[in-house]
Amino acid sequence: MADPSNEVCPDFNGNTYTNICNNIHQATIETQEAIVQCLTQSWTVGHNQRVNEWNQNREWELADAAEANQARAAQEDKVWVQQEAKEERERIESKKKKLKMNSFNDKVSVGDSISPHPSQYAVQKLNNFKYIELWYFSPDGCKEALRTVHSVADDFGLTRVDNQLTIHPTYAFKASKSATANHNLPFSMFLHSKNLFLMQLNVAKWPQTHIDTLSLFFWHLENHSIHNNSDLGDLVVLHYASWVCQDWHDCLKWDEAFNIAIINETLLHSISKELWDKVHSQNLATVHFS
User: Which of 37, 66, 47 has its CA nearest to residue 3?
Assistant: First the structure.
């Protein structure tokens, strides 16, 4: 709609309005001057009304536009504040994740002995709270880890940690071909390996309750009476430790873990019976072959 304030009053004395003026004259017997004045006043009233309505509508439109602009500005301010808060949180998190070098005691020398180091593969497993065979913490496992570091020191790969790609040596991803299950270890190596394993749990920041429970688990197995009551006692304990540790880690992932330190005597004796049955079967086969 055009702005009515620009409208111009018609010339009611002109030829365009002659018939209208004559009809009004015949109906009212008014003079031409009076008729023109009446038409002019009528148009002026309508004109003023249209101008007022136009101005009112413009005020409403301007008010609506101002309100919309204010709402948009408020939304933009809100988005800006949220973005600033997000960037600030990211800066704080970035500072937390930034590596820091610890200090050292300038009054203390290196110790009389140095603990062996397991492979990066084993360390990564512990850092991720995953199951790992005790062989990796044995003297053989640590010696192989040292040889591997020296032989593939320049070989790297990518892995995703906390939604970020991280570069690691490729040997950190590969299991050793020499690794063996817990129940295939000599019992003396089993006892030796579990000590370094428990030490590495502290380094990997495992919960202290889990470390204490595993320590008690190994203590119960090492001191179980089956070692004295059965010729296969060591082998039975090795199989029990191998199977139960794997099952415990699986249950941890499902949040259904049990107290591993409580030795299940029924399961232990079932394993003993199964191993003795194998021994008897092998003996029978040997006799039959002979």
Answer: 47
Yes or no: say if 28 and 1 are a contact pair by the CB < 8 Å rule. Answer: no
Are 245 and 288 within 8 A, CB to CB? no
- What residue has token string 């892995």? 159
Cβ 265 vs Cβ 222: under 8 Å: no
Number of helices (H), then strands (E), in the chain:
9, 2
Instruction: Residue 174: name the closest of 131, 125, 222 by CA.
Output: 125
232 CB-near residues (< 8 Å, 6+ apart): 272, 275, 276, 279
Residue pair 141/176 in contact by the 8 Å Cβ criterion: yes
Strand partners, 164: 161
Cα distance between residue 175 and residue 87, in whole Å: 40
CB atoms within 10 A of CB 117: 15
Phi and psi at residue 158, to the nearest 5° = -110, 145
Q: Which residues pair with 165 in a beta bridge?
A: 160
* Phi, psi for 284 (deg, rounded to 5): -65, -40
And the tokens for 258? 């049990």
Predicted structure pTM score: 0.57
* Residue 160: DSSP 8-state: E
Residues 6+ apart with CB under 8 A from 218: 194, 198, 241
290 — pLDDT class (breaks 50, 70, 90): very low
Tens-place pLDDT, residues 163-205 = 555 555 555 567 888 899 999 999 999 999 999 999 999 999 9
pLDDT in tens, 102-124: 888 888 888 887 778 888 899 99
